[in-house]
Amino acid sequence: MDLDEQIIVEMKDFILEFCEKVGPRSPCSNSESKGAKIFYNKLKKLGYNAKNEEFMVHLGAYKASFRLPMILFILSLIFYWIYPLLSLIISILSCSILIGEMYFVKGVIDLFFPKRNSQNIILKIESQDQSKNKIIIGSHIDSNWEFPLIRKIRYGYIIIISINLILNVILFIILPIKIIVIFLELKTEFFYIELIFYLIFIGSIPIALIQFFFIISNRPVMGANDNLSGMAVCYEIARYYSIPENRPRNTELWINAYGCEEIGSKGSKNFVKKYYKAIKNAKVINLDMLGYKDSPVHIHKSEILGLVKMDYNLVELIDKLAKKLNIKTKISSSMAYTDSLSFARKQIAAVSMSSMPQSSKEFYYHTRNDIIENLDFKNLVNVYKICIDLIKNIDE
Predict the structure, then answer these.
(1) CB atoms < 10 A from the CB of 333, how many?
(2) Do 231 and 210 share a structural domain?
(3) Whole-model pTM?
């Protein structure tokens, strides 16, 4: 058995243990906590003194951010002709939640929901000599609840969400115009235009209801790819550096597993807030969804929904090292939020690595099909090699 095959066996055993002993790990659940403890104990067996750090999260806001704007949109339509000002206020609330929560990931409605416990596992490996560099490699512990729309229509769920967002914004734009028109007594000229849009809005109600009822369920998924794959690579890196002669000479290495990534990168945000002064000059590598079949290693230069750019020097360095290792890569932008978001927003050099489905048939993100049987371990090994080589390159 060569080294690659040995690493694959170990990673399979790692993921299989979590699948069998823990199962799905929804945010703030007992199973998420159990998964964190297993990872902590594994690090302890390697001789490390890791930390299990708890933090608080407003749990219910995540699901509400998908559903509440749909209710508000329909309410705004109900009051459109009777009380336009009330309709505008409701529309403002709807757009604030949609854009603030889903686009900027700002926790607009967090305070309206009770707090629950989650946790991060934090491991700091001191360098042999005085540290000149800091590298943070992280992944997340939790798995999401199933998105039924993704399982049924795959990429089509993006169309549903986009239509609802666009229509909410159009309604938000039309309502102030309507109020001004009423004030200036120009209703006749505006009536036919708004009637056309209103009929479109009424016709879109079924799409809003589809998002309300079917975008997210209460069934947690296994999350073998998202993100036991990233945790398995983090553990293998920790195992490699548990051997004294492998320890970096000039680099302080952090290996972290974050809680509650799926509901807005809460664990990594908590970590950055707590350790900012110590890590502000660090280089951060986030590992997420590494196991899609036949995919190159995606090195993400930005996150579209979070409106953040990653550190391009780090992106180019990783790409260069991967090419030397004959590993196929692709520099791309990721659609949704990863834990890199928390670091990039604080101007800490960060980048994410992942894999992507090569066809819609393989798109099992956030579905019950995210199981170990659907994993391809080739990219897990490739990302492991890239990370080890990156650490050595920076250390030297």
Answers:
(1) 13
(2) no
(3) 0.93
